[in-house]
Automatic annotation (TrEMBL):
It comes from Actinomadura napierensis. Keywords: GTP-binding, Hydrolase, Nucleotide-binding. CDD domains: Ras_like_GTPase (cd00882). This is ATP/GTP-binding protein. The keyword Nucleotide-binding applies. Transmembrane segments: none annotated.
């Protein structure tokens, strides 16, 4: 993983300000799709085909068209209009790959937790992970066909989140929409860091 970060830094330029962020959430929620949609380089993906061995382990009920799964991580890079370079790491969604999360989370300043409202409980573990570690995060409600529409406040209440955590409706297949989510995360990180400095000052 260090080589991935080093190579990306070299491509981005040594003088660029870089930020590492994570994209998390349950199985089949759109993490790989988001990373692929926004990355300005060819994204690194570690997907493997779903086989009969995953029957009874991976619940594909709501994502019956899904044929692959991330077994390590996704990686992409995007440069925002202000010159800030984001290194975007997608986490694996299944419990059996969670041993990798601590390594992926090292040095991350924030995270996007993607949500499918048809399977809201699938994101609870991701929310809990970042809350316990004090990592700023936002919620991205990915629009799936057949999923009901809910207001940000309804989603926030269902996840028992504080009012300061942004909830963004999005279609992660759309580059501009996915980019909007990442910008919202960066803004949230900046507000959180500013609030922390003020708290220390006073």
């Amino acid at each position: 993983m260090e080589s991935v970060r080093s190579d990306a830094a070299a491509q981005a330029g040594d003088s660029a300000l870089t930020v590492k962020i994570l994209v998390a959430g349950g199985f089949g929620v759109g993490k790989t799709t988001l990373v692929s949609a926004v990355s300005e380089i060819r994204p690194l993906r570690t997907e493997e085909a779903l086989t009969e061995k995953s029957i009874g382990i991976d619940d594909t009920t709501a994502v019956s068209s899904k044929t692959t799964t991330t077994v390590a991580m996704d990686f992409g890079r995007i440069t925002l209009p202000n010159g800030l370079v984001l290194f975007v790491f997608g986490t694996p969604g299944q419990d059996r790959f969670w041993f990798m999360w601590d390594e992926l989370a090292k040095g991350a300043l924030g995270a996007v937790v993607l949500v499918d409202t048809r399977r809201l409980a699938d994101c609870f573990a991701s929310v809990d992970y970042f809350e316990r570690r004090g990592v700023p995060f936002i919620i991205g409600v990915n629009r799936f066909d057949g999923a009901g529409r809910h207001t940000p406040d309804q989603v926030r209440d269902a996840l028992d989140l504080s009012s300061d955590i942004p909830v963004i409706d999005c279609d992660v297949r759309d580059r501009e929409d996915a980019k909007r989510v990442l910008i919202a995360l960066v803004e949230h990180i900046m507000r959180t860091m500013s609030g922390s400095r003020q708290a220390v000052t006073y």
